[in-house]
Amino acid sequence: MSSKSMSERSFRLKIGEKWWRVDFVGSDDISRGSWGEADWPTARNPKIAIYGNQDEKNLIDTTIHELLHAIRPELSEEAVTETATLLANGLWKMGCRLEQDKSSS
Fold first, then answer.
1. Is the distance from CB of 3 to CB of 99 less than 8 angstroms?
2. How far is residue 31 CA from its own chain's centroid?
3. Domain residues for 20?
4. Which pLDDT tens digit goes with each residue over 14-28?
5. Is 104 a residue whose pLDDT tops 80?
6. Are residues 47 and 21 in contact, defined by beta-carbon separation less than 8 angstroms?
7. How far apart are CA 8 and CA 23, in angstroms?
8. How far apart are alpha carbons 63 and 75 in whole angstroms?
9. Which terminus of the chain is more exposed, N or C, with fewer CB under 10 A?
């Protein structure tokens, strides 16, 4: 992950009628073997947890993947995985990268 800490990357995003919390977490805060987890949209305070210790391209892919689950919960895991990876690859080829912390450069 870039020089920004995991907690500095966390954000809130409105999806539908609800505000979602997106947190970048360590291995102790996510299911073993998981890169990310998303609540069901029916949750009272929905959250997305993304394992933050991934390389930059995978972090982008996982974030898109979990956001897709939140936006379109009816999609199959296969559809979400394929769509997220295609979007992440396209954005990567376009040159999109995670913002660097300017204070540490």
1. no
2. 15
3. 6-96
4. 999 999 999 999 999
5. no
6. yes
7. 9
8. 16
9. C
Average pLDDT, the chain: 91
Q: What does the alpha-carbon distance between residue 46 and residue 40 come to, in Å, rounded to a whole number?
A: 7
Residue type, 54: Q
Alpha carbon of 23 to those of 16, 90, 105: distances in Å? 19, 24, 24
Q: Is residue 103 part of a domain?
A: no
Q: Is residue 104 part of a domain?
A: no
As for how many domains the chain has, the answer is 1
Task: Answer whether residue 45 is part of any domain.
Answer: yes
Residue 63, pLDDT > 70, answer: yes
pLDDT tens by residue, 89-102: 999 999 999 986 54
